[in-house]
Records
---
Amino acid sequence: MKKSTLAVILTAVLCCGMMALVDGVLMPGYAVKSIIKLILFLLCPFLLSKADGSIHALEAFRLQKQGLHKPLLLGIGLYALILCAYFLVRGVFDFSAVAGSLTESAGVTKDNFLFVAVYISFVNSLLEEFFFRGFLFGNLKALHSRRFAYLFSSVVFALYHVAMMLGWFSLPLFLLCMAGLTAGGMIFNWLNEKQGNLYASWFVHMFANFAINTIGFMLLQSR
């Protein structure tokens, strides 16, 4: 395995590991956590690309001629699908711990929910798309292999969410969420690859976050 490939993998593992420590152990306020994430997910890849010319950080932001109407429709459809799935399973699975965890560990309350929801949907989704798709998937595909890039980036994307979701769900629902996140990472990779940039996957990711934030709002209101 090339030195550059190992550097990308180690950067991804270290940055996600540090975010897991922040999310699961340190648990600072949401503003502080967001600043730390910006440093890890944006600055670190940029510095690595400056140190190694074969590693690219900003190419995924290039605009292409392909339209975004299909990803937009896909995002709207995904929003509806997630909400429908929630309403179908809320009588089967217990979601009561989610609202408490949002308040206690993430610092999300009814008062700041709108700001956090907007930030997560627009900024945080773009940051994650840059890190997991633009930086991790794009470089692993170029430096190693397409298959490995798809698998590794999708699994890391799912595992990254473990620390912030601990205590939210029962084990069966948690495992289902992990499988869904891995599959979602695969779909985001495919959109990124097909479009030639990360804007299409960002649109879909954005609407997925819209749906999750809508559910979070309903859970907080029910407390």
Note: The two ends are 51 Å apart (CA to CA).
---
Amino acid sequence: MAAMPEGDTIHFAASALRAVLAGQVPDAIATPQRRHAMDRWPERLAGRAVQAVDAHGKHLFVRFEGDLVIHSHLGMTGSWIVRRAGAPRGGRVWLVLRRGGQECLELGGPTLELLTAQRVRTDPRIAQLGPDILGDEFDAKAALVRLRAGGPERSVAEALLDQRAVAGVGNIWKCETCFSAAIDPWRPIGAVSDGELRALLEFARREMAVSAREGFIARPRCGARIRSRGQGDADRRTYWCPGCQQ
């Protein structure tokens, strides 16, 4: 499976950006891509300190003084990187935030916008998100109710991908969590017990927290050949082990 941005990736990126920017006024801000050329972000953010960098699910927020917030969602192909300032840049760089000898770059992705803090609080794309699987106040009991809200016939894998139920789990961790509990990803969620769902959430929360600190690390399998096929209305690719997940 090719790596793609999920909740652990976004929390990992938020930590890296926070180390460079939190409490600091960026030395320079640039929006190299033409799509943002007329938005005047460098002028609007000039002289403003970054108050916080945080994440919720797959969404990242860089919060500036004056209630202005950069909101990013990387989709399946975007990325954040932190590196030495002045290194050559590719054509996909949308945003540059430089401080000292380092710069934070956002490359690609469907969503990069400058919003007011009020807009962030009321935007339905954000307000309708479920609890963050990596959040300090994650409520597993409430998450179970949300996972079952789509109906008993929905597959457990599709429920795990629903960001309104639990924010942060993407295609990779959907597959990893089902594998961890030896659950067929196509099993209807009505046939999955609360105990099994709790085990899935506990695994995702524990392992994604490690990945958010250290980066994603692939784990060995039983040796059986992994199979895959499209699943759900979006035809997202699901991977499973026929030896472990009967």
Note: DSSP finds eight helices and ten strands in the chain.
---
Amino acid sequence: MQKVLAALQKLGKSLMLPIATLPIAGLLLRFGQSDLLNIPFIANSGNALFTNLPILFAIGIAVGLAKDNHGASGLAGAVCYFVLTASSQAVNKALQVHTMFTPQGGMPKDLKEIDLACFGGIIAGTIAGLLYNRFKNTKLPDWLGFFGGRRFVPIVSGGASLVVGGVLGLIWPTVQNGLDATSKWMVSSHGAGEFLYGFLNRLLLPLGLHHVINTPIWFQFGDYTGADGAVVHGDIFRFLAGDPTGGHFTAGFFPIMMFALPAAALAMYVCAKKENKAVVGGALFSVAFTAFLCGITEPIEFMFMFLAPVLFVIHAVLTGLSLVVCSMLGIHDSFAFSAGLTDYLLNWRIAQNGWMIIPIGVAFAVVYFFLFVFFIKKFNLKTPGREDDDETANFSKLVADQGFDSLAKQYISALGGTENIKEIDSCITRIRLVLVSNKELDEKTFKALGASGVMKAGSQVTQIIVGTKAELLVDAMNKFIPEKSSVTA
């Protein structure tokens, strides 16, 4: 189970690298449209990134999974993707031709033109990343020495993806039909599909696996043929490409991220001890404003996730409910980064019934405020400003006062030293770790170092939430971790 959790954590983190291209892709695509700047070459530039998202997934995931993030793994990811795609389509086409000459004639329903889309990139990137770690130090005979080491990785990756591509050519039509059926069910389920997605999206957040469930819905579900004849997939890209059914599953996040969770932060401030309000007010305003403006909500969610797990489950339920409400009211809106004010304003003109997000958000904000006040006071939750011990330090202030290097040494010490760190990496707001053992970690110590939460999954997989400077802190920590015990995956 430890290995499974660690592997899923790596995959979830690796998905963030190609997903990080979405903001620039979305900005270029939107600003180039006729309702904004009306500059085709800008729109085409953004469209090119969305169109080639599968290859970006292949490269980004391969680099993310490689132990040293070497560029050779990205090259192997590209090789894998091209070979995988071509071989699977060739095998599938051969099956179709063969079927045409069978005595029965006709073509079975599941033998249609296949499109691996972003799943092809994910599979290719995973193959390349794993093979890079296995074969990057391969030594060959002297007469083949040029092809040894990292140069061998694209070669072996190409061979492996040829085999996998052949298998996918046989089975992917069935998988594709299953994905199509699932997406159609979710859209026509009268709220059940929307609720399930929203609920799981938040429920998987502590493990960092919400990216795994986001990927098929954001980038795979549904298809839309644009005016230029190009076929696009996924809830986000279809919305940005002008599909009136796009933005079906993403609109419901705006009320939660822009209104509800900032209201939860306000509730924490109201419930803080009078003498501590001045101390915690700035920090709570900062995380609330970040959620409202950018849609980054983890710093707020980790403030109550472990203090009140039941409250977090209710939060997940209400997120699912928000998706249902927006769906039932015919609201279609989406984002290039997250459901914050920036994307809301950027897509205002192309959203359907987008204005309704504001009153819905206000209603959810009222519910969240009173719900949090009730839970905090009823169960005496030690939210910021209510602790009996020292308050959680302000991470940004600690960085300003001490610098990243000094803080990095303190985090390494709090983690049990370099000998206790097997793997370390970062996500948007969290340090992702695989430790020899996390049993001795003290959450109070990390709070004093500015962390807003510590998540343990088993006895090794660990995540520490520090905010948007997580990557900079991990870079500093890696300076003091011997290469043999630091693996960037």
Note: The first helix runs from residue 2 to 19.
---
Amino acid sequence: MKPINVGLLGIGTVGGGTFTVLSRNQEEIARRAGCAITMKMVADKDLDRAKRLVGERALVTADAGEVVDHKDIDIVVELIGGTTIAKELILRAIANGKHVVTANKALLAQHGNEIFAAAQEKDVMVAFEAAVGGGIPIIKSLREGLTANRIEWIAGIINGTSNFILSEMREKGAGFDEVLKEAQRLGYAEADPTFDVEGVDAAHKLTIMAAIGFGIPMQFSAAYVEGISRLTRADIAYAEELGYRIKLLGIAKRKPKGIELRVHPTLIPARRLIANVEGVMNAILVKGDAVGQTMYYGAGAGAEPTASAVVADLVDVARMLTADPEHRVPHLAFQPNRLSDIPILPIGEVETSYYLRLRVMDRPGVLADITRILADLDISIDAMVQKEPHEGEEQVDIIMLTHQTVEKHINAAIARIEALPVVAGKVTRIRLEQLT
């Protein structure tokens, strides 16, 4: 089989890692792919830097269009990020009959339906293992390894920055702002960390996994997204006292009325393996009806872990180049004409358990008023702790864990509780999952 020529768009952190891994393991990769996979062209705006990294091993250009239009390029690897130029280049590569490998989760979550339809039309492949979980082979597991299963739910720590921050807040008893600065100093958080700490990055990844797991189109706009920036050290400590850890989870669940698609801070029992995933590591749980729970753990970012997934995609595409397009693994695991139109449930219809923290006046009858409101809305209490007031204070914290209930009922209860004259300020609400 003739060598496969690759064109790389962007030789930054992941692009550089991809070039290094492909060069270093070239012989091993060729043995697995059945042919040589050669980096023929590299495009990057920083031409001098790109030339220093590549040397004489590939053609270097500042014009990405040259790569996607070059007649000798078989596979285009897009690692420039963003949702504008990257989209134009990917669609142009597809129109030119080239296969695409990308790590661009934001692009796929928002425009994946259009990109996959274009690829289907041109009989080319779009591979995207590196878009979720860095080097963890979660996409391949969902698309192929678990294909016998009806996926019941997916839950994952899929953003290393937020997991590092929560780990540090718990271990050091520090506040969010303090730990965020440390994460930025260490290079784990961007100068503008919004996408990471507000859950947007995790929602992009969850959207992709849910589409593959449940056979639905990409629906990022329907996902509920809540970040960690409002979490306090007090809530992390209280959760620990009750036997729980707080993690930013992406959760997708199949329910009778639709799909839950949500990212938010979540209490998890401390005995669960996923609750003990610390620092910048990622972990994803998938429950199938036949296999039960499976867990995937590893580095969710970084040059070579992500490059591992990019190169694995290159090998997959190389292996499938001669296959009849109708017999390739579909982009979203299910045949394109068999995707489901099952709706994404609004957050008010989600059913889970809750952690509630209330600041109340230390007076008789307060607890009875609160529990009466919960009972009126059929919300039952699983556990409750009332903290002792500090000397000279008239207010105390009450922490409650509820049994499962519908979110709109919790919202109604919180509104009524906050209206009580003995309740100070807002009720803190964090969702709780047993993950069984």
Note: DSSP finds 15 helices and 17 strands in the chain.
